[in-house]
Amino acid sequence: MSSDSSTLFISDLHLDPARPDIQQAFLNFVANQAKHCRALYILGDFFEVWLGDDDVNAFNSAIIDALQRLTMPIYLMHGNRDFLLGQRFCTSIGATLLNDPTVIDLHGTPTLLMHGDSLCTADSEYMQVRAMLRSPAFQTDFLSKTLAERQVFANNARQQSQAHTQQHSQASAANGSSTDIMDVTPIEVERVMAENNVQQMIHGHTHRPARHDLIVEGKPAERIVLGDWDKLGWFISADANGLDLQSFAIQADK
Question: How many other C-beta atoms can be found within 10 angstroms of the C-beta atom of residue 226?
Fold first, then answer.
């Protein structure tokens, strides 16, 4: 269990009514690890899909109720799945919405926080879609539609995303390529870290939890990647003694 001096980071839970096991794992996490932490950071793709803050239903309400019971600061960053999370949602849980990227002072260490999708610059097709979805004009038009219309769009977008991922995974396997455009672009990682004058970065998105040592402007640096919640739940616990990437088993729904 985390102490009241630790800061916790999670991302890529992809909360979805179709996965009650992950919902229960998160509720347990809130009641245990997160209950005593110093602050909680959610770095995107908290929900599998977010149709808008006006999408009031039992599933979303249960998540909101759990977060409302926390008393520490909560910080939220958009992901590529839940980029429509708005101020109404943040206000309901007492959270602060963060820009992507954001630099924080993490127990004395300047740390760059990102969702991570903007680092995948080799995937030009995805970057074009990302630019469209993040545009204010698109979002205003999308939110003007009925919830039913938004759901149809979201279902189609999910199918296209899955097909896109499968296509590139098959292509990489067929070519025997060590370069995966679905992962971050190393030169972009170094550029963003240098631009923000940091030697430590935390992000999610790629579903490839790991700690990576690198050199940024001649100095040792580290990139820590949060994992997605599926068979395991992933989180980072950070305190004055350092940073720890941890996981726990998610019990399958019976």
Answer: 29
Tokens 């929900």, residue?
Answer: 47
**What DSSP letter does each residue of 205-253 carry, written as one string?**
SS---EEEEEEETTEEEEEEEPPPSSSEEEEEEEETTEEEEEEEEPPPP
Packing angle of the helix pair 124-133, 136-143 (nearest 10 deg)? 60
**Residue 2 pLDDT more than 60?**
no
Distance CA 25, CA 202 (A): 22
For 95, how many CA atoms within 13 A lie in the half-sphere containing its CB? Answer: 27
- The residue ranges of every structural domain in the chain are 7-249
* Fold of domain 7-249: Purple Acid Phosphatase; chain A, domain 2 (3.60.21)
Q: Give the pLDDT of residue 1.
A: 43
- The first and second tokens of residue 21, run together, are 């096991």
List all residues 6 or more positions away from 104 whose beta carbon is below 8 Å from its beta carbon: 110, 111, 113
pLDDT for 76-126, tens place per residue? 999 999 999 999 999 999 999 999 999 999 999 999 999 999 999 999 999
Q: Is the distance from CB of 226 to CB of 236 less than 8 angstroms? A: yes
pLDDT digits (tens, 9 = 90+) for 21-50: 999 999 999 999 998 899 999 999 999 999
Is residue 161 packed enough to be buried (19+ CB in 10 Å), middle (13-18) or exposed (0-12)?
Answer: middle
